[in-house]
Structures are given as structure tokens and as C-alpha cells.
Amino acid sequence: MTTAPISSPRPLARVQADPMARAAGKVPPHDLDAEAAVLSTLLLDVRRLPQVQLRAADFYSEANGRIYSAIVELAADERAVDTVTVAGLLRDRQRLASIGGPAYLAQIVDATPSVANVSAHAERVAQLAQRRRLIDRAHRIAAEGYDAPEGWDAEAVRQLAEVVAAPVAPPADPIRSAWRPVGLAALETRPEPRRWLLRHPTRDWQPCDPAYGDGMLPLGKAGVLSAEGGAGKTQLLVQLAVSIITGRRWLDHFVVGAEARGKRVLLALAEEDAEEIDRRCYDVAAALQLTADERALVASRLVALPLAGTPVALLRRAEGGSLAETPELASLRRLLTEDAGEGWALVVLDPLSRWAGPDAEAENEAATRTVQALESLVRVPGGPTVLCAAHSSKLARRTGTVDTRGVTAITDGLRWEGQLRVVDAEVHFRQAKSNYSRPMPESREIELVRGADGVLRVPSADERDRRAAEDHGAAERAIGADVARVVDALARERQASSVDAIAGLAGMKLTAGRRAVRLAMDRGLITRVGTAREPLYRVCEETPIPPGTSGRPADVTRETSGTPGGGRPGRSGTSRDVGTSSHWIEQVDP
After folding, report:
1. Where are any strands of DSSP class E within 320-425?
2. Which backbone phi and psi does 222 adopt, to 5 degrees?
3. Containing domain of residue 50, as a range?
4. Which pLDDT belongs to residue 50?
5. What's the CA gap between 135 and 327, in Å, rounded?
6. Radius of gyration of the chain, Cα coordinates, nearest whole angstrom
7. Residue 434 in contact with residue 218, Cβ under 8 Å?
8. Of 252, 221, 226, 223, the residue nearest 239 (C-alpha)
9. From CA 315, how far away is CA 369, in angstroms rounded?
């Protein structure tokens, strides 16, 4: 919906510019459209009031401030909030005419394209109010300096310095701002469907319309993607960014949610320079064979920050040891708000170790504050998902598992966790945690292969069949080697009294040794003789011919004389490939 600018409301500026500024045509910073968008959202859905951390004095328009006060008062009394009730309350207070009457309220209602962005609009209103207060303070300080009487003492200077050092914005009271009864509307009105950045192409693991698959990665939440170093986290996140903008399936599997498709994406990569980012983007575009239109779309909606070597921590230690926001966090929020365009779908901070505050991996308190800093980015226009890349711990790498390095407060506080697990030449992805949907079982892991360009993709059916055949062949060769090992050991010793004794002769663990002996007996390579009380195991005198052959292949047969391999004197030892095993067979000379 295209919104018309808000016409000048009744009394406006609470903070007046100095005479020189007025003469130059300057007015205090403000955004009447953002103010109207906040009020319109609340008039349409007052349940969103907790998302609006404002006071009436934060509105540049006094009329807008009075409307906001009326909304807050009605909501606190659990009364209905709409243009009629707000107009009635203002009429009772003899303030309706001062805001422009019911006509202005009607104009306000049509002022917002989406109620989902109310947090971002409210934050902009608050930031501009803070700038106006700063201007006001500067004017007061300048006036004090110009008008100071003779003999202005040191105490006056000290007091003025305290004014300069005091916070510009009034202290916030988040508890009071969030204080509200639930109200009947929340209990009787079906809430809006949850928004998803990514969906499964299945419902309850059964194929379905991709648009209605189970949710996988929620919009508007903070999460983490964990893996050991070099597993491909950054490349996978670049591919995710391209999928969101173009609408293509991520990893050829997960479906981009309709609410996120085509929106803007920020890649803030603290370990990459500009050249490497360009290389990664080119490789992804080439691997996915993006069309010219898709390339143009990605070029206009993907913002990538090359921040290698740049300090980017979101928090710092203030005096007294408390954690405070850094200018980098404030700048990031401001730029995401000012350059929002169609709204953000995804903000990637890679890696978490460089963006997190001090001691975030060692102290739960610092980790919790870091999670809160990440969650503050969710409130920018579009309500994006904030996704961090994190390294796995050394312990997890040693045990072949994946976790998020650091204290548990990181994964406890974040709402979603994905994991990349390296398995030989493959990488497996799965959703390990989600507070809003079921986690993926290990049986549903997505197997990926890495191309020469580093791009991760799902292998084709032919590649899967070939790999399965290779794995099967490798397993058969390993089993054959075990069988040959026990047969050779028994041939050297000539006989053994038990299966476990044969495993011991072969130097194998009992489980593997017992399996190898059983297979050797099934293949006719080892026989059991003697009695039930005193069994004996020996190598068979007869050599089975592998199926499909008519004799002894020359390339797998070797003849020796004497007693190599423990054969009896006067006989020859023959090494032959039988099935998938190589073993020694005793044969009597004619």
C-alpha cells in the first residue's frame, strides 16, 4: 500500500531550534510518517503496544503525543481501542479539536502498510526524540555560556559539566512499558500465523505443498549455526542469503517462507575481506546458474560487510565492570533502520566469537547480555532473523559431534540452532534446536557434498548410488581383510580350541574377531572338528572356488614352498583371493 504523507498536525515542535537555525530554515529532526505508522498500528491492533517503547513526549507532533496517551490510557483500563474510543476520550478531555478532530484520526489509521514493522517505526521515533533532546540541551548549554554573569564560579562550571555528561534520553522503564493485562482479545482472537524464514518441504515428514510445510527456521528470532572450523558455515550462509532473495530452495531442500522471499539480507562477515566476499558470491551465482534477473535482484538486495581485522564486538566493559553497548551495535541498528528498503529478512553475523561481548564464551551473564544484543537487531524493519555462525568446541571435534563453543547460556538463550557435521568427504546439516518447531531427527539430516568452488549442494541420485556402492565395497573389503586375518592366524598356529582363541591369535577385539571367524566358517575357510567338550578349529583342507570362476586367477594366486605362513613341511602354501578375502590354504602335493 502506498501511504500519503501525513498532513501537518496541530501544534508540532516541542523543541524549538535557536534563532539562527530558524533563520536558516532548519527544524528539529522528526519523522511524522513513522509517528503515524506507530499510532495506526496501535489503533488497528492494540495488542502490539508492548512492542512500542515510547512516551508521549517522544512524539514530535503534540497531536500525535496526545493520541498516544489516549491509547495507553484506554489499554490500561482494558477498554476497546479504535478511532471512536480514542476520539471519545479526547473529546471528554477537550482535546479532540486540538489534534485536528476525527478526520485526523481517520487519516492516521490509513498511514501504515504493515503492522509487523511497528517496532522499527517506534525505534525511529525514539531515536529522533533523543536527537531533539540533545539539540535542546546544546542550546541550553550555549545560553548558559553566553548569559553567564561576571564572576561565574567553578561550581557553576561543574554543574554545567554534569549536564553535559548526563544521559540524553530519560531513563527507560521497560517493566512499566510492558505492564499490561492480557485482555480478552488475546484469548478470543486467533493470533496471526507464525512467520518462517525457511520451511520443510514436508508436514510430519510426509510430502506436502511446500508453501504449507512445517516450519524450520523462524523469522524474527535469533539463532546460531554451529560447526567445526572449515566445515563451510560461511559458504552455507552466503547460499542462504541468495536463496532468500531469489526464492530458490536452500540446499535444494528447504523452502523460503513467503514472508521472507525477496527481502533484503545483510552479511556482516568479520573474518572476510571484500575480495573473498566477491569470490564467494560469484561461486554461488555460478553454481546455482542464476539468471540475469536473479543476479540483478541479489546485487540490489544483498549487503555484505567485509570486516576482517575490524573490531566489531557488540558489547564492551564499562567502568565498574558492567557490560554496555558499543558504538558498533548502535551503528548497525541505525543503518539497518535507515537503509531498510523493502525490509530485512536475514541478518548474518559471522563468526559469533568476534561479534560477542567480552567473556561471552566463558560467563553466563556475558553470554545472556550478548543474546539480548542480538535480539535488539530483530526489531529493525522487516523483523529479520538474526543468525550467527559459531565454532564447535575441541571436545565435540574429538568425539565427532557438534556443539556451540562456550557456556550454555548462548544456546539456551537463542531460539534456534543448526549444525554442520563433517563426515569424511561429506557435510551433514540438521536443525538441532527450535523453540517453535520440532527438531530434525538424525535420520533426517541433509547430506551435502562440497564442489571444487566450495559451494555445498545435495548430491545427485547417480552420485548417491555411486557413493553407496563405494561404501559397500569398502565395507566388504574391510570384512574380507578381517576374515583373511583370522584364517592366516589359524593357519600359522595349525589349530585353536575356541573362537575367542582365534581372535586372540589374530590380535583382534573379541566382537570383530568372532564375526570374522563366523564368516570364515560360513565361507568354508575354517572348520570345527573334535568333540563338543573339546572342539578344535582348523583351516579347511579344501579350497572353495569363488562363484563365477573356473579356476585359480593368475593375478591373485601366489605359490610358495616350504613352510611360509606356517604350512606343514613338505607341503606348499597357496595364497588365493576367495570372494573378498585372501588367506592361506594347505594343499597336498600329488
Report:
1. 323-325, 344-350, 385-391, 416-423
2. -105, 135
3. 19-188
4. 79
5. 20
6. 36
7. yes
8. 252
9. 8
Cα–Cα distance measured from residue 12 to residue 462, given in angstroms and rounded to the nearest whole number: 70
- Position of cell 565435540? 396
- Cis amide prior to 171 (ω within 30 degrees): no
Reported as a single tens digit per residue, the pLDDT across 305-364 is 999 999 999 999 887 788 889 999 999 998 998 888 889 999 999 999 999 988 899 999
**Does 26 have pLDDT greater than 80?**
no
CATH label of the domain that carries residue 129: 1.10.860.10
Q: CA-to-CA distance for 583 and 526, rounded, in angstroms?
A: 11
535 and 440 together in one domain = no
Work out the angle at residue 328's Cα, subtended by the Cα atoms of residues 269 and 313, and round it to the nearest 5 degrees: 65
Residues contacting residue 457 through CB under 8 Å, at least 6 positions apart: 251, 252, 287, 448, 449, 451
Whether 130 and 235 map to the same domain: the answer is: no
Q: Which of 29-33, 95-99, 189-193, 483-487 has the lowest mean pLDDT?
A: 189-193
Tell me, yes or no, whether 506 and 394 share the same domain. Answer: no
The answer to whether the beta carbons of residues 425 and 444 sit under 8 Å apart is: no
How many residues in the chain?
A: 590
Kindly state whether residues 496 and 452 are assigned to the same domain: no
CA distance 432 to 440: 6
Q: How far apart are CA 516 and CA 537, in angstroms?
A: 14
The terminus-to-terminus CA distance of the chain in angstroms comes to 99
Rounded to 5°, angle at Cα 113 from 107 and 119: 100
Q: What is the CATH number of the domain that holds 489?
A: 1.10.10.10
All 3 cell numbers of residue 127? 531515536
Is 194 a member of any domain?
Answer: no
**Structural domains in the chain (count):** 3
Cell of residue 92, nine digits: 471528554
